[in-house]
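Running this now, will post back.
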Amino acid sequence: MAKFVNFFEFIILWNKTQNLNTPSFHLAIARWLQEGWMNGNERLLLMVFRDAGKSTLVGLFIAWILSYNPNLRILILSADQSLADKMSRNVRRIIEMHPATRHLMPRRAELWTSHQFTVRRSRDHRDPSVLARGITGNFTGTRADVVICDDVEVPRTCNTPGNRSLLRQRLAEIDFVLVPTGFQIYVGTPHSYYSIYADCPRVEIGEEKAFFEGFHRLCIPLVNKLGESAWPERFPAAAIDALRRKAGPNRFRSQMLLEPTPARASKLDPSRLVIYSEPLRAVFANNELTLWIGDTPMVSSACWWDPAYGRPGRGDRSAIAVVMIDRFGRYWLHAVRYLLFSPKELDEVDEATQLTRQAIAFAAALHQTRLFIETNGIGRFLPGLVRRELRGRSCNLTLVERHSTRSKAQRILQALDPILAASHLLVHQSVAESGFIEEMREWAPDSLARDDGLDAVSGAILEQPVMVGSRRFANAAARQPGGSGFLAETEFAL
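Update: finished.
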């Protein structure tokens, strides 16, 4: 290995044996990888546009570091076993054919399989030199000096909130596999706005920091800020324009420009929302209740509950929302909550009763006088239960049943499309940090993405407004004797 100290020389020699040229950005990647390896940068993230040969480069890197230190234990993780095996076969082929690695060939053929192999080394490790696993496979019993995560994010591992959560959980297991001073590289391209590769946290899915915060990043998009191609020999301007048209703007931005973007163009653009942070104020004066947000009085309000059993982590979520309208015709989405029952309390309180109590408390806390409930599906069994729970309570809340005859997609578009186009939908900061924004980004009329919050908000928007300025009280505790005024500020950690 002494003759091939530099990784870029290792690459150039390999390309010569394959009658290939070496593009300049490959050499830039090689220098970056070598610098990270030699300088002890233990966490690296390499993002390169699709069809750039990044997996081949990483395979060469694995062969190079094995030549540098044959005793290394390397774990390759990909989205599935077939992708991981493909990388493993690539590394084996390089070791078999590269002039600098042929000395690594083992004496026994049984050590040379597709999903794992062991090179000739001086130490007797229990783990092979290279082990290939799909991200959902079993790798927790292994130990590794190097972990290579090659394309762990693909559409099927990030197309739903559940799959994205599972991917993050599986990647967290790497900490229990990698030795304390181990080396880790992620290689890939984003496939979702909520990509693990995003350079800033997505607060609406609960992230407080970017998933790869603290990693050394190298990002090489197909087109730089000057409009120049990173690989003009393979991707001239005409080829880039054709690819942009074929892939569409969203896929091109994600896969070629490396900007985390929804897989499809959303009909509901969250950038059209107006965010506010002022609390809701309930004012009682002259025996009349009014609701204010900041200095703006509300003239109508609706609270809509789209019920579902809401088992944690499974199925549809039970969503409830409050939308108010001011005198200028603007809609204020002040709160959205996803109700979940607690399985631990089922011995004492059944699912429906738990959810009903949460919905009533939500509406009453926001000074609503009516609770609209969609009676499609399980909702047809709930009105009697809601009325039972309302008896004896201090809140003055009336239940109104509604049966929807239009499709959910029609309701969502009819409610949200026009007011988003006019930038007339204002949302509270707590809503912007909830799953509602995630639903907006990924929703399309024919998609299977979650839409429970969208459905609840749409119901509240489309419902005949309940005029505020009424003598009815959602919260009877706010009632004050005489003609004196009363003001209540309502703030929630929703």
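The radius of gyration is 29 Å. More later if anyone needs it.
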